[in-house]
């Protein structure tokens, strides 16, 4: 079975010019946890997930780098949690989204898709054809299609 036979064709996505506010609105409205980010030609340029948002709003602790020659302290967060969350809403998606996007071709085989999802520990894979976003496959899609005929 190939990607195009099991992918979801209606893909929720955001544009590279959108803010994180629009991402969070889509997460809540569609009960999803990640979105491909596309340019005006519908090419995948980034991927933003709930993990990216958690890393941004989570507490960043001070880091001390101690060597023979010097000691450096990199300060963590100086602002309150609510302020970080509020500031996040107006950021451009490209500021926190992953630019190295793991994706598959529309004719990729299911066993390769399962291996990528498992090895990379990701929840979803964007599917592209001729460089353009055409679908998305989740872990659940692979499980449903793999075991439907065996149950």
TrEMBL record:
Q: Where is the CBS domain?
A: 7-63
Instruction: Identify the keywords attached in UniProt to this record, alphabetized.
Output: CBS domain
Coiled-coil ranges per the record? none
Pfam families, from UniProt? CBS
| Classification via SUPFAM superfamilies | CBS-domain pair (SSF54631)
PROSITE patterns associated with the record? CBS (PS51371)
Q: Which PANTHER family match?
A: CBS DOMAIN-CONTAINING PROTEIN, CBS DOMAIN-CONTAINING PROTEIN CBSX3, MITOCHONDRIAL
**Under what name is this protein listed?**
CBS domain protein
């Amino acid at each position: 079975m190939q990607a195009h036979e099991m992918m979801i064709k209606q893909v929720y996505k955001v544009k590279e010019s959108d803010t994180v506010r629009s991402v969070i609105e889509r997460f809540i409205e569609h009960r999803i946890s990640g979105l491909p980010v596309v340019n005006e030609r519908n090419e995948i340029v980034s991927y933003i997930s709930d993990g990216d948002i958690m890393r941004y709003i989570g507490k960043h602790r001070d880091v001390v780098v101690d060597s023979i020659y010097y000691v450096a302290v990199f300060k963590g967060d100086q602002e309150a949690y609510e302020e970080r969350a509020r500031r996040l809403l107006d950021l451009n998606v490209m500021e926190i989204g992953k630019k190295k996007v793991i994706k598959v071709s529309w004719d990729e085989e299911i066993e390769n898709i399962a291996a990528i999802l498992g090895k990379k520990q990701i929840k979803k894979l964007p599917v592209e054809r001729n460089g353009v976003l055409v679908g998305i496959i989740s872990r659940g899609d692979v499980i449903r299609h793999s075991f439907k005929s065996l149950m």
